[in-house]
Queue: 3 jobs
Job 1
Amino acid sequence: MSGTWILQHHHLSSSGDLHPLLSRANSSIRRISHQEAWSQSLSEELSVGLVMDVLRNCYDPEIPVNIVDLGLVYGVAIDNGTVKVRMTLTAMGCPASAYLSHQVKEMIEKIPGVKQADVDIVWDPPWTPDKMSAAAREGLQANQEPVTIEFDPASFKPKKKGHIAKNPDGTVVLINEANSRYLGNDDIASLWEKSDGNKTIDELTSELAVEKKVSPAEIRMQILEVVTQLVTIGLIAPEDAMDLPLHP
């Protein structure tokens, strides 16, 4: 069945088998590029304040707020070139634990004067939303505002933009032309790779259904929602008729 679909997409939607959360790993709350953070570290003496500024480049892959403004960093100590970070996660058993620990350690050890970085994940006190900064709360509220997109899956031929990469832990990261990063998975990567502008959404749905050994009807709505997400965050080119506030 064809026709025009009108979908409302929330940036922090829940995940599913073929429709995992596309999490923003960059934020307009306070954007400090890696280059800017590196420039700061070259000109500033190693200090707790400098480490905290650098950590504002680290993001929980499921939440579009840096870990400092999110309230995950409980303390930073510096001892003879060794930086010790005491931090938590939003929930015990968080699948991003290893990814986030590696990101924090790697970023700190790039600061001149740092010999080693140790990251200690703690659960006491547990993280609660009140630990977020006011800017973080405002940013999350803004990211939850719905975006309405209209397209006909029988005629719209999605064309991918940006590029894709894989982290050392195997997680898939999609990067748009503004260099904003989004966490995905292999199913989303497959849909993005197939979106070369030559096939309609209905055709892509049928192709993916064969690969997943399910009927197109079973995954149709999920694919429509994923395409909506990818258009919204600038990883699929919108149709000329679409007028979207694409995120930088």
Note: The first helix runs from residue 34 to 43.
Job 2
Amino acid sequence: MKLTKRVKWLIGTAALVGAWVAFGPKDPAAVEPARGAAMPAARAAHVVAGSAKPAPVAHSLLALAHRVAEQTAAGSLFAVHAWYVPPPAPPAPPAAADSTPPAPPQPTAPPLPYQLLGSYTPQGEPTVFFLRNGERVYDVHVGDTLDNTYSIDSFRNGQLVLTYKPLRIQQQLSTGVGQ
């Protein structure tokens, strides 16, 4: 089996780390397991407290053993908490000053669907207006009706006056020409 250079480096590094852990210097602050019979906890704390130079870890454990929590804090450690938040109160009903509903707005005519394409005035005859609605083209005179919805009423001051028949509302379509 041929080992690559990378594998050789990894094996060598692992061997060095293992040797250092096993045979390396011992940390004086490290805690070693007890070699004899286990001592009761009270006697061990007394022995540690009575020694002339206690170890740093033993000193920390001794300081932690004598702390006491206040009763109010100790009681609230495992207290039951309710996370329920009541919903807000419903809004007050509006004051009923007038119980009649407001009048609906007056109906209005829809915007004119027609566009003026142009006009033509033959000699001695009335003017013909060419209107467009979508793809459909109309040639109309004053007095004609378009689709049983609009009637052509008059032509004055460059405006073609149409009446929306269902509501009898007049609308004006500008021709851009004065007469």
Note: The longest helix spans residues 5-23.
Job 3
Amino acid sequence: MSDYSQRVTGSFNERMRLIRLRRKKENLRFWDEFRILPRWLIVLIIVLFLAAQAIALLVNLEEARHGGVMFPAELQENPALASLALAGIVTAASLCLASLIFLIAYVNRDAKRRGMSSALWTILVIILLPAWGFIGFVIYFLMREPMPYPCPQCGNSVGARFNFCPNCKCNLQPSCPQCKHEIAETDKYCPYCAYELGAGVAAGQATPNSVDPLAPSIGREGMS
């Protein structure tokens, strides 16, 4: 492998490590994530579920009234148990279908708030669903970007791949003062050269290489 390829691979692995660290800081909770689903979709699913239960029950009872065979046939002599069994089957099928619909809606909303193409990812998971099952969702959860987070200096919302804050020029990708590799805000020691990092670096503040290149004299005074 050439030196250039090694540098490209190392830079990619380094950036992915930082992205994984930022994902761990998101602290996502199920009900908080469930709230991003559109309310009209939740109401529609509930209405369709109740309608399916009512239709199944009425059709089953109407079949028995006309001398037909109730479903399931094993409970033909007990209409109450047959109705309960049918309701359970409808409920199980509805839960599976509703979970699938909610997953697709979640991908759409979650991709949008992470600055990704919501339409592209929604189409991808739908296309892969018939042939590959849930592989589209697995790919999305592995590849999705970290959520935007507040700039440690000005509080402005910034993307996970930003190097500098567009509002205050704060360095969002601090580097080790010794080996110049990118480090995470939570690192106490550089993972590449074991250099002990200061509290300012761990807090996401500017490092020696975060000086504004348009103002070198100010940067040199600040570092002296």
Note: The helical segments are 3-24, 30-34, 39-65, 79-113, 118-132, 135-143, 199-202, 216-223.
